[in-house]
Task: inverse folding
DNA sequence: CCACCAGAGCTC
DNA sequence: AGCTCTGGTGGC
């Protein structure tokens, strides 16, 4: 009697076992019964039935085999298996984000070419690092690197950059290359089928392109490898850069890690060094203690607007260039506090401190997105005096509007992503004679399209990240990017307003990333933080489950930390993933479905 | 009488 | 988390 182990997408980690009359080759898709319904899974292996092991549940037969050949070419399947283990998400969850829905949702057959024979030339793969602030310089090197390569993947943190790089390729190369779509749907399906079946030379795209089913891969480039864009923000939580590195190793492909700044892990492993630093006159630090205290309606805190900010803004505007003011707080105020009892207004769903959106007369929870109307009184003490703290973009906007000259607009961009191409053109056209743009870090991408002569980080200390340990690097790399990004970086001035101007991580801005990482890594080594260990963020499904998980980890002689604040979260630091996976595996068995599955994020650097 | 929807129940 | 089955509601 034969059985198949099938990977069926879902939050569980284990493969599911089904009976089969005849052996099914690994990598083929099969339709299988699950619960009351039917699902599609990928065969991991066919083996003899092990009566003891399979006795705990009744085996059901496979409903049908959907493919003639393995659906994933080359070593891609191994990548999914590895990623599922490394990021504690299970192969199935990774499959879900890696494949178009046409493959996993519909039993329609997908036409597939047979796998390629192993005609791969076993060149010795290289691992190269390339760090330079000049994008043109890096891109030129990419073209050199791809010379003579027969199957390549080039990854960019943003789709727009990918499109630009692809568009700049020599026509002959572009014709044998595909621009990987950034979103799912029909376009992804089409691209997937083309790449899977046609003899293409390469794929260029955003992070998702790492999963392109190229049959032969001999080179992978990761641009801006330290960018946070390579981390997925919904389940499963994985680092695409790491997967790209693994894919290169699996396929024996050469790997080029590149960017303006290396990530901590790459810095450490590559023993990198750099003397690149900004010109003295292009970076300024200003203390907000001496700030001009602009009073803003309904806001208790004064907005940090320094004299340096006003003078540089004025200079830039009068030269007809555009000014960018950046602040990572949307809305009118980052917090609403009661003057009587001092407590902040919190989200009723998740307990986080809410943001005040004055324009729409409501509050928004920054962590769960819950919207509510602005409260009349303090929910804690019923006091009537609610004031905003930590002014946000909406509150500063009137100040910016007062500074622009005739014919220069002041724009408030809440959400650059939602604006699309047409809006982008409107923005760039409107700013042909300069103006002020206010936005969050996402607005930095405007450097690619606008002549930006001055960038101000209004509150460089603000760290609104969920994981505090890497907040310094996030801020550092964004500020670093703002110095160099785009064709208008020459002569640009960047201003950092903060409480401790020029100290701490800001020294690295003046001295370069080698100095930054040296300092930062000595602190992290001390605290056993990534890249010196892995950090696991485990979110239990219920309080009971949390207790069980804690007990299981402690039983395996690990030291989980219970921060107490987000109530269901557990933190764990470990030098290896394996024992953590073993301790957590019981909670990810399909048999536990009814109790709900925990969520896990693995921080590697 | 059936179309539609929310909630329950199940998962190798 | 999906997915389907169920039973109530309401439109005609």
Result:
């Amino acid at each position: 009697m034969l059985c198949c182990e099938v990977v069926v997408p879902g939050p569980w980690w284990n493969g599911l076992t089904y009976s089969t009359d005849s052996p099914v080759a690994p990598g083929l898709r099969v339709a299988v019964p699950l619960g009351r319904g039917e699902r599609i899974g990928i065969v991991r292996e066919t083996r003899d039935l092990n009566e003891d092991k399979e006795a705990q549940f009744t085996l059901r037969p496979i409903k049908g085999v959907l493919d003639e050949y393995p659906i994933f070419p080359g070593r891609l399947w191994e990548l999914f298996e590895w990623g599922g283990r490394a990021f504690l998400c299970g192969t199935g969850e990774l499959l879900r984000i890696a494949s178009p829905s046409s493959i996993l949702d519909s039993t329609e057959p997908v036409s597939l070419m047979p796998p390629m024979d192993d005609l791969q030339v076993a060149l010795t793969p290289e691992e190269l690092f390339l760090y330079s602030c000049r994008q043109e310089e890096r891109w030129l090197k990419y073209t050199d690197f791809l010379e003579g390569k027969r199957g390549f993947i080039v990854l960019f943190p943003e789709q727009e950059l990918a499109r630009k790089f692809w568009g700049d390729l020599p026509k002959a190369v572009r014709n044998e290359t595909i621009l990987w779509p950034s979103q799912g749907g029909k376009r992804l399906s089409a691209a997937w089928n083309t790449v899977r079946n046609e003899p293409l030379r390469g794929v260029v795209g955003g992070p998702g392109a790492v999963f392109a089913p190229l049959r032969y891969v001999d080179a992978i480039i990761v641009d801006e490898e330290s960018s946070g864009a390579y981390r997925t923000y919904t389940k499963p939580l994985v680092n695409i850069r790491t997967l790209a590195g693994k894919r290169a190793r699996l396929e024996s492909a050469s790997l080029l890690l590149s960017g303006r700044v290396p990530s901590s892990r790459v810095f450490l492993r590559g023993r990198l060094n750099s003397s690149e630093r900004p010109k003295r006159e292009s970076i300024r630090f200003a203390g907000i203690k001496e700030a001009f205290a602009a009073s803003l309606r309904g806001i208790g805190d004064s907005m940090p607007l320094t004299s340096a900010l006003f003078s540089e803004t004025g200079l830039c505007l009068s030269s007809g260039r555009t000014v960018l003011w950046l602040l990572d707080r949307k809305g009118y105020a980052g917090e609403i506090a009661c003057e009587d009892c001092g407590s902040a207004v919190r989200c009723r769903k998740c307990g986080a401190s809410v943001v005040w959106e004055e324009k729409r007369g409501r509050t928004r929870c920054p962590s769960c997105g819950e919207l509510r109307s602005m409260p009349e009184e303090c929910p804690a003490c019923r006091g009537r005096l609610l004031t905003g703290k930590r002014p946000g973009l909406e509150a500063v906007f009137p100040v910016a509007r007062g500074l622009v000259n005739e014919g220069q607009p002041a724009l408030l961009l809440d959400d650059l992503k939602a604006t699309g191409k047409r809006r982008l053109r409107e923005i760039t056209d409107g700013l042909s004679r300069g103006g002020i743009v206010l936005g969050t870090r996402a607005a930095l991408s405007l450097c690619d399209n606008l002549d930006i002569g001055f960038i101000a980080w209004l509150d460089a200390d603000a760290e609104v990240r969920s994981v505090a340990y890497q907040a310094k690097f996030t801020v550092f790399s964004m500020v670093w990017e703002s110095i160099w990004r785009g064709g208008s970086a020459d002569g640009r001035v960047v201003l950092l307003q903060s409480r401790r101007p020029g100290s701490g991580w800001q020294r690295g801005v003046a001295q370069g990333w080698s100095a930054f990482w040296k300092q930062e890594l000595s602190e992290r080594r001390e605290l056993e933080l990534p890249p010196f260990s892995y950090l696991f963020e485990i979110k239990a499904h219920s309080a009971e489950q949390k207790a069980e998980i804690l007990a299981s980890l402690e039983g395996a002689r690990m030291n989980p930390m219970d921060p107490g604040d987000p109530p269901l979260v557990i933190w764990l630091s470990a030098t290896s993933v394996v024992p953590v996976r073993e301790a957590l595996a019981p909670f990810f068995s399909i048999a536990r479905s009814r109790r709900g599955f925990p969520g896990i994020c693995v921080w590697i650097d």
Q: What stands out?
A: DSSP finds 18 helices and 27 strands in chain A.
